[in-house]
Amino acid sequence: MKKIILFFALYVFAISLSPANNAYKISDREIENLFMNAEEMCTINFLNTENNFVSGGEKDRVTAILLAFFLGGCGVHRFYLGHSTAGILYCVTLGGCGGVIPLVDFILYIVATDAEFQGKYANNERFLQWWE
């Protein structure tokens, strides 16, 4: 048993000295470059409207419909449309009167055309979007 352990230790030591292992070494400069690139990629300005998925631009009606159906009680569809205040109110009121308001939102999103959706619902900050 001692011979096997000694042979294994010598084998591992011999492998560690082989020139093939030197190809896998990374210098400190390469590690520093790796971290610098990671910092650049992780730095995102969420307050910039170009990078924020919630503000600006057109919203997909199908995505809003699915969010209203599955997560309407939590107000996720309103967060998606950029109406964070209404989304918070949906959360606080358990879906706006127990889920009635998200159900109405869901039906209105289905019935509306894409142009109506963008004009009337996607760019509307009111809690009751359909109320005029």
Mean of residue pLDDT values: 76
Distance from first to last alpha carbon: 88 Å
Silhouette: elongated
Query: How many whole angstroms does the radius of gyration measure?
Result: 28 Å
Description:
This protein is mainly α and 132 residues long. The chain has two domains: 2-42, no CATH class; 61-122, no CATH class. Helix content is 58%, strand content 0%. The protein contains seven helices and no strands. It has helices at 2-17, 28-42, 61-71, 76-80, 84-92, 100-111, 114-122. Helix 3 packs antiparallel against helix 6. The protein is elongated, with a radius of gyration of 28 Å. The termini are far apart.
Summarize the structure.
By secondary structure, this protein is mostly helical. Helices cover 58% and strands 0% of the residues.
Keywords for this entry:
7 helices, 132 residues, single chain, mainly alpha, 2 domains
Helix and strand arrangement:
Layout: H1 2-17, H2 28-42, H3 61-71, H4 76-80, H5 84-92, H6 100-111, H7 114-122
Helix pairs in contact: 3-6
